[in-house]
Amino acid sequence: MPSGPPARAETRPVPDATGLELIAQALQEANADSVLGTAFFRDRAVIIANPPDVHEVLGRLKDQGYDFLASLHGVDYYPEEPRLGVLYELLDMKEVDRISVKARVHTDAPRIASVVDLWPGADHPEREVYDMFGVVFEGHPDLRRILMPEDYEGFPQRRDFPVGGEPVLFTYNEDSPYGKSQ
Amino acid sequence: MSATTDYRKREESITLTSEPAGERQELLTLNMGPHHPATHGVLRLLVTLEGEIVRDLKPIIGYVHTGIEKTCEDKSYWKVIPCVERMDYVSYYFNAMAFCGAVETLLGIEVPPRAQYLRVIHLELNRIASHMVWLGTGALDLGAVSMFWYCFRERENILDLFEMSSGQRMHTRYFQVGGVFEDIPTGFAAKLRTFLDRMPTRADQFADLMEKNEIVLRRLRDVCPLDEKTLLGLGVTGPLLRAAGNPWDLRKAQPYSSYDHFDFKIPVGTVGDNYDRYRVRHAELYESVKIIEQALEGLPEGDHITSDRKVALPPRHELATSMEALIHHFKLVTEGFRVPPGEIYYPIEGPRGELGCFVRADGSAKPARVHMRDPSFSNLMAFAPMVKDGYIADLIATIAMLDPILGGIDR
Amino acid sequence: MEVKREPIDVLRKAGPSADPIDASDFRSRQLAARDMLRGDLDDEDLERYVQERVLTTTLERAVAWGQGNSIWPLTFGLACCAIEMMTIVAARADIARFGYEVLRASPRQADLIILSGRVSIKMAPVVRRLYDQMLEPKWAISMGACCSSMGVFNNYALVPADKFMPIDVHVPGCPPRPEALMHGILRLRKKIQEGPDLGWRERYGAVGTEEVVGPDEARPDAERAAGPSGDPAGA
């Protein structure tokens, strides 16, 4: 029989707003311009980091206990600048805490440090972000395309890249479907 | 007679001692191409072999890359659900759950308790179905061919249940933002109970077939173990991590959708070899059955979807009488609901590990970014350390126990 | 008023001992069909007409019956449709009833390639290569919406199968039920057993990429049995 809602206190899976501010403050004390801001939305904590200092921020958070990299992915914030964002989702398994770190780079200088030395599991996700958005991860052992063919040109998941596809066949173009040679 | 003695003489003249292979043999790079009878899906492996021992492995993926995430940016939120479902194509309810959970958190709406319990029932049924595919194809790779038919027989029963509740066997579009699409029909509970009564016996039969078999034990026991620390560094979760001894399960650690109402255990392994991976997934079958039984017992009455008409379609009978319902229906079907700007990462526990969905909303009716964190994508990175210095036959067995789903890896 | 009809001279253009009607000449085929419907074809033309269109030879019929009843599919699964293809191998919808349970892993030994799932641009050359490595007679079924048309995902990453290889039967669905795929396979069986191949693949432009090495003019003394090129490790 199900036991019904648990009687224990409401678990807080992320550092709450004050906890987030304390973490951000500690990071800022260590390196003044590494943290550009924080965001706390729907019980999710985000630290907005300065791209040159991302490796340091993540290293400090890892030492603090957030030692599991759950996800590394990219976002294209078109048309807001800086356009390309890289998000790191960190997880502290002992305290059951999650925190996100966001770093945004411009399209004309999309370079950011690779965190493969901190987490070997960042290998394929960084290649994917490179493949889809064009962000170059400095220090990555083998940065090449992972999902698209090796010689593909363009970065598909940028917002200004067309979705593509084949025209849908209707009556007016059914005489020239794809594949028919004449 | 002379031929026989001649033969005997020749036979005795051969010295049957084993010769040492020498310090290092030449390395051979073999391509286990995207089409191979054993790779589960279109996974390409560049294997560097020294004799029969794997020295290095490079997986090459992208052969079923569908651009799902890009397609999702073009569609309204409820149209994203069928796109996202087709990502990890044996655990389709989980993909939908991750996305719906993310959007529900962004919207800040509550899912009614009946919907949560129905979701749990379908999620756990899908977990059992996914493990049936894993066990059937995995045993097929090892050579235990008849397991395939037994496992798919169970899977057919589960798909019949899905067809009862939603009309489709796979990719059912049953989970919607705010709840589930329809309430379960009248015969569903009875049929589900018959299935639940039978499933533990069947799982026992599978165990009897597999675990007493010397060949299976030799191929799985102490084969390709990997320690917990390496797995954590690689971002591996799910049964692979639990086989190594770490009891991390999001259903217990960060419960979602009323999982904290149910009493179930997390099977954990000790050594982290293939046998433990097999045992952990097999034990999860019993636990899933327990969860579904509890959910079915305690299924609360109520709505099957949120009553917020700005998000969920109104029931059809209201359209004839209420003007507002008609307007809501029209707006929802043509444009869809708008989600206020925000970003969220919503993780759930899929059959292969942590399945997370990142949604960025920009205030319009279409998501600005949908990213699915797929467990197989991270689990695949653990594959090379696992099979290093193992035999190529162990590589095949490890792929089977790794349970990669290329749809999720490539998206 | 009496209407005088005459068979058009097209059939007799090169004389009675001429070669059969060139199948690629659409107009002459059309006129022959018209004459057939009117009952204007005479003995030898009629016989030629029937021979080209219907399997009259017992041997041809027997061969077609045999081919249709023992199709060997290739184990080729791409995405979600592969799971439904696995269920038709499983017990409930059982292709062994029809004799198709021999799924071969090697394309050299298979007759039928069932494209089950979405074909991405990275995978398309691989699929084409597999299709080329299959030996004649070979058939292809495009299972599911993603390879028949673009399906759910009409975007940069996918290729409809019609674009790079000739498909005999398209089975719609997402994924198609095992019964639907069964129906598609049985339609293919009907096609094999009843219909002659009218050269549709040549008209479709679907030949030319098979990796077959012919006699080399540059090396006139090279053996004919040079074998097909392409490394088997790629499969």
Task: Explain this structure.
The complex is a heterotrimer of chains A (182), B (411) and C (235). By secondary structure, chain A is α/β, with parallel strands linked by helices. Helices cover 20% and strands 25% of the residues of chain A. In chain A, a hairpin with a 2-residue loop joins strand 1 and strand 2. Residues 1-12 of chain A have low confidence and may be disordered. In chain B, 51% of the residues lie in helices and 12% in strands. Chain B has a three-stranded antiparallel β-sheet with strand order 1-2-3. The N and C termini of chain B lie far apart (70 Å). Chain C has a three-stranded parallel β-sheet. In chain C, helix 3 runs antiparallel to helix 7 and helix 4 packs across helix 7. In chain C, strand 1 (112-116), helix 5 and strand 2 (139-143) form a beta-alpha-beta unit. Chain C is mainly alpha-helical. Chain C has helices at residues 26-38, 43-53, 58-69, 80-89, 124-133, 145-148, 178-194, 200-204, and strands at residues 112-116, 139-143, 169-171. Chain A binds chain C through residues 147-149, 156, 161-166, 168-169, 177-182, and chain C through 121-122, 149-150, 153-158, 160, 162-164, 203-205.
SSE succession of chain B: HEEEHHHHHEEHHHHHHHHEEEHHHH
What coarse outline of chain B follows from CA principal-axis ratios? Answer: elongated
Largest sheet of chain B: 3 strands, antiparallel
- Output the radius of gyration of chain B: 25 Å
Please provide the ordered H/E string of secondary-structure elements of chain C. Answer: HHHHEHEHEHH
Order the strands across the largest sheet of chain B as they lie in space.
1-2-3
The overall pLDDT average of chain B reads 90
What form of chain C results from the Cα inertia axes? globular
Number of helices of chain B: 18
> How much of the polypeptide of chain B forms β-strand, as a percent range?
5-15%
Distance between the termini of chain B: 70 Å
Strand portion of chain C, in percent? 5-15%
Quote the average pLDDT of chain C: 76
Tell me the number of helical segments of chain C per DSSP (H or I, 4 or more residues long).
8
Measured by residues with Cβ under 8 Å of the partner chain's Cβ, the largest interface is: A-B, 47 and 49 residues
Structure class of chain C? mainly alpha
User: Which spans of chain C of ≥5 residues are poorly predicted at pLDDT below 50?
Assistant: 10-23, 217-235
- Major beta sheet of chain C, specifics? 3 strands, parallel
How far apart lie the N and C ends of chain C?
A: 70 Å
